[in-house]
Write a structure and sequence with these properties.
Distance between the termini: 15 Å
CATH class of the largest domain: Alpha Beta
CATH architecture of the largest domain: 3-Layer(aba) Sandwich
Number of domains: 2
Number of strands: 13
Order of helices and strands: EEEHEEEEHEHEEEHHHHHHEHHHHEH
Helix content: 40-55%
Largest sheet: 5 strands, mixed
Shape: globular
CATH topology of the largest domain: Hexokinase, domain 1
Number of helices: 14
Length: 322
């Protein structure tokens, strides 16, 4: 069997696979565990009980939200340090591979079915052209893929945020005054959506409803803001989500230009799936394609939203066998 995992700051998906088929699979809240080893131990105990015997694992691969160096990862948004050799010794795993979570996602994108994507722009796809895989969730992941090569690991989510409009420049100033350097992840993440909401609220352009203010105190702010925008048409929440989407589209278009991604830009991550109707409304692609004299080039780039939550898990399993 293969042990595969997609490990993010919010959720962790683990699966045992045999001949490409999932034999046992579980989802966990990452913050319920003080260390990654405890999560793996829980999963293997549950797998052993369900399969009526301890699984015999030939190889393991985990896609993890953080930079991998010398077989170790300090997880970006969790107090975890994950060591491949330590996992191998503790759990008797002969082969353990650690890769960035968006490298795993990029592996998985090539294995999904057509029904696992929603196309925002058909573009003019070119054979053997580079791809970009990026996505906002707890953080912002970015990976490039050159045809015929493994995905290129990187931390593009921590590149500087580049305002594209006067409103975005005001947002940059607001964030810079509070914390110095402003990164893409400061804007394009769950916490980033909450920051955008606070920025617009403080500008007093839209009144904050008492109901929404109370909801923000008792639940995940990004989920609350998205829900009030999409289901209740709350003016402040809608303005925040729309500004988030324009920033998202502009950043995705910049990454497309970096490698002339005629192989496609694939928007993954938990947020995109949840706000898909708003992504399809036009603001995302308008910002994506607003590149001045290079607009004609990015209009030729196919853009897809990945709707499968298992893409990182599928990709980790593929990387385990590479």
């Amino acid at each position: 069997m293969l042990l595969a995992g997609d490990i993010g700051g919010t959720k962790a998906l683990l699966a045992l696979l045999s001949d490409g088929h999932s034999e046992f699979e579980r989802r966990y809240a990452s913050r319920d565990f003080g260390e990654f080893d405890s999560l793996v131990g829980r999963f293997l105990e549950e797998a052993g009980a369900a399969l009526c015997s301890a699984p015999r694992i030939e190889a393991a691969c985990f896609g993890i939200a953080g930079p991998v160096e010398d077989g170790r990862v300090r997880v970006t948004n969790l107090p975890w340090v994950i060591d491949g050799c330590g996992l191998s010794a503790r759990f008797g795993l002969e082969h353990v591979r650690l890769i960035n979570d968006f490298v795993a996602t990029a592996w998985g994108v090539g294995l999904l079915a057509p029904g696992d994507f929603v196309t925002l722009q058909a573009g003019e796809p070119a054979a053997r052209a580079p791809r970009v895989v990026l996505g906002a969730g707890t953080g912002l992941g970015v990976t490039y893929v050159a045809h015929g090569l493994e995905p290129i690991p990187g931390e593009g989510g921590h590149a500087s945020f580049a305002p594209a409009t006067e409103e975005q420049l005001a947002l940059w100033r607001h964030l810079h005054a509070r914390g110095g350097r402003v990164t893409l992840e400061h804007v394009l993440s769950g916490a980033g959506l909450a920051r955008i909401y606070e920025f617009l609220r403080d500008r007093v352009e839209f009144a904050e409803s008492a109901e929404l203010r109370a909801a923000l105190r008792s639940a995940d702010p990004a989920a609350v803001i998205s829900r009030y925008a999409m289901e209740r048409a709350d003016p402040l929440a809608t303005a925040a989500l729309d500004l988030f989407i324009r920033c998202y589209g502009a950043a995705a278009g910049d990454h497309a230009l970096n490698v002339m991604a005629r192989g496609g830009v694939f928007i993954a991550g938990g947020i995109a799936r949840k706000i898909l109707p708003r992504l399809r409304a036009g603001g995302f692609m308008a910002a994506f394609n607003d590149k001045g004299e290079f607009s004609r080039h990015v209009r030729r780039v196919p853009v897809h939203v990945v709707t499968s939550e298992r893409v990182g898990l599928i990709g980790a399993a593929a990387a385990a066998q590479a």
